[in-house]
Amino acid sequence: MWGDPPERGDPIILPPCGSSASKPPALANVVAAQDIHLEYGGVVPELASRAHITLLPRVVQEALAASNTTIDQIDGIAVTLGPGLLGSLLVGIEFAKGLALARTLPWVGVNHVEAHLVSAGLESDLEAPYVGMVASGGHTEIYHVPEPGVFHRVGSTRDDAAGEAFDKIGKLMGLPYPAGPYLDKLAREGRSDAVPLPRARLKGDTLDLSMSGLLEKEPHPIPDARLKDIAASVEKAIVDVLVERLDQALDRYEARAVTVAGGCACNTLLREETTRLAAARGIPARFPSPKLCRDNGAMIAHAGSFALRRGERTPFDASAIANLDSFAPLSVTP
Ligand code: KG4
Ligand code: ZN
């Protein structure tokens, strides 16, 4: 009934990016989508780690072939240390260690969220200091990046991630999983003031945010016109909460740019509103192109190449860190 998911970011016109001439080009970015999860309406951790075991060697070989590179030309290896699903992280980390040992190469473990925060730099200038938001199915966090390689988390969701909110409401609306791209497409033809929805406002001096209270029960089946209005209203409510916090973060922290990454950064309204917010402050808004908004190896390599150049090395006894809170306590603002 719903057809193929709309190409993420399809309707999006990217704001002008700065010169990309000075950017290290990504020679290849191979992503193996795991369609096995679709029938479950979410990622099944055990299936994901097993799929990593079979897909990973192939993906690395494909990336080498696509970039016309041999393993002898590689200077270092970057791998996601976390946060994420423990089993999948372990498969990736042990694979990377094996490769590093076999080829006597340096390797670095990368924080997945920090990689999202630098990902726009693969295609445009993104110079610190800046404020960044990562909004995906698993994360909604705001960071201040005062200088390269320094990431201060200044706000987080207290409950659902933005993508989770899109997906849960989309499920109530009868949309396929993940619902974000479908909801985005429907919203383009709906009225965002049609359905009054609350915006959760947290008390106190915080940049944390909440996605609660957005779900509303709708009698089924929902007529098409109503579906579009619900989509537009839900999208507006979620984006309002995100953009309000970005605005407040920009009030508090020195920033020469603002960036939004993660799957939800494909969202049309979020890109428009962030662009407007940045323009009002006379700074650029940087978004990765849709394929780099989603999880991808290029952003891990990008973050890892900075770390390797700074001389960072990860010891061989390092292992997966599934939880963001256990990751780098020092980078969390007290
Ligand atoms: O970063 P991502 O591909 O995977 C992880 O969650 O790690 O993000 C997926 C999330 C899903 O919740 C999906 O519904 C949401 O990003 N998403 C969108 C859009 N495209 C993807 N949400 C709103 N609008 C979109 N256009
Ligand atoms: Zn991610």
Kindly list the characteristics that best describe this protein.
globular; 5-stranded mixed β-sheet; alpha/beta; binds 5'-O-[(R)-(carboxyoxy)(hydroxy)phosphoryl]adenosine; disordered C terminus; 334 residues; binds zinc ion
Mind explaining what this structure looks like?
The chain is α/β, with parallel strands linked by helices and 334 residues long. Helices cover 38% and strands 11% of the residues. The chain is built from nine helices and seven strands. Strands 5-4-3-6-7 form a five-stranded mixed β-sheet, sandwiched between helices. Strands 1-2 form a two-stranded parallel sheet. The chain is globular. The relative contact order is 0.19. The structure holds 5'-O-[(R)-(carboxyoxy)(hydroxy)phosphoryl]adenosine (KG4) and zinc ion. Residues 112, 116, 136, 262, 295 line the site of zinc ion.
